Amino acid sequence: MSKLVIVTLITLFTLIYGCSSNSKNAEAQLIASDILFNLSDKNGQYNIRVATGFVEKTKSYTTKRIMEIPNKSVDQVIEQSVSISSLGVVKKKSVILRPKISQYSVWFEGKKYFSELKINTAKKAIDVKMKSPESQWNGSKQIKFPSTKLLPCFFNQIIECAKVNGFISKASKAQSGVLNMLVVWEGYPYLNETLSDFTTELFSDAQLEYDGKTKQSERRFSLRVAGQAITYVLDEQDNMKKMFWISQGISMVSKSKTSSKSSLESSESEEGEIE
User: Fold this and answer.
1) DSSP 218-263
2) Distances (CA, A) of 147 to 143, 150, 165, 225, 260
3) What does the pLDDT average to over 239-244?
4) Contact yes or no for 210/171 (Cβ under 8 A)
């Protein structure tokens, strides 16, 4: 066997092993959890349960959020979403969470508004399905991805996207750093109905930046997106512990510790809603 062939095989093995190792490290960070948060905004106090889980068989990561009015026995869910992304590698080394499908439901005055976003890889677009009491938000349409090199990430998985590609760890050690990304808003097309003076677009360029530490030595990261700033405070396992969206008057603070188990049902349905 020639030296050239041996060198080529060694290089190929190194690339494959490196990709596999990076992927395994990313999987290890996507620990299943079930966390209860208290959310405060201009309308009152709510509970938000965030359940996450990684499915080894499909290499997919799921985030399920349920927003409820506390201490109310009936019709207490007012908003819920499920976001599913697949774990992948780009440029043979960078690990990413690639958006796959999301479903979002919100109740306005007791009426349900639903949307589904499904990545159409062949068309480089997102297929949008909507069901609501209003004609403007019914039916299907396709929205092309913008012409950009930024990697997309569901809004509800911002921290996880930054974790798996190593940014959170590197920025924490260096105490500096910026990660550029393309946010995909699961709440589309109802964003301007749930948030004040906000974008009506499906995509937004964003930058996640290391922002120092709190007085309790907790790490802060700031997301600049759609002309606004969102602050995330992380725990020792790099999970979100607090979130502050000042311009929207929103704060989220965890009420319970991260669990190593999740109540999440991570199966995906091609038709109907993801339960």
Assistant:
1) -EEEEEEETTEEEEEEE-TTS-EEEEEEGGGTEEEEESSPPPSS--
2) 12, 9, 22, 18, 39
3) 95
4) yes
Q: For the CA atoms of 249, 236, 214, 34, what is the dihedral angle to 10 degrees?
A: 20
Contact 213, 219 (CB under 8 A): yes
Please give the pLDDT value at position 31: 83
- Residue 2 pLDDT grade (very low, low, confident, very high; cuts 50, 70, 90): low
Residues 6+ apart with CB under 8 A from 196: 42, 247, 248, 249
Contact yes or no for 123/99 (Cβ under 8 A): no
161: amino acid identity, one letter: C
**Burial classification of residue 44, based on how many CB atoms lie within 10 Å of its CB (0-12 exposed, 13-18 middle, 19 or more buried):** exposed
Residue 139 backbone zone (phi > 0: left; psi -120 to 50: alpha; other: beta) = left
Locus of tokens 């969206």 = 245
User: Taking CA 154 as the corner, what is the angle to CA 36 and CA 82, rounded to the nearest 5 degrees?
Assistant: 50
The full length of the chain comes to 275
Domain boundaries, the chain: 30-254
3-class state of residue 197 by DSSP: coil
Average pLDDT of the residues in 75-79: 85
Residue 228 pLDDT exceeds 90:
yes
Rounded to the nearest integer, the mean pLDDT of the chain is 86
Q: b or e along 180-212 (b: 16 or more beta carbons within 10 Å of the residue's beta carbon)?
A: ebbbbbbbbbbbeebbeebbeebbbebebbbbe
pLDDT at 15: 37
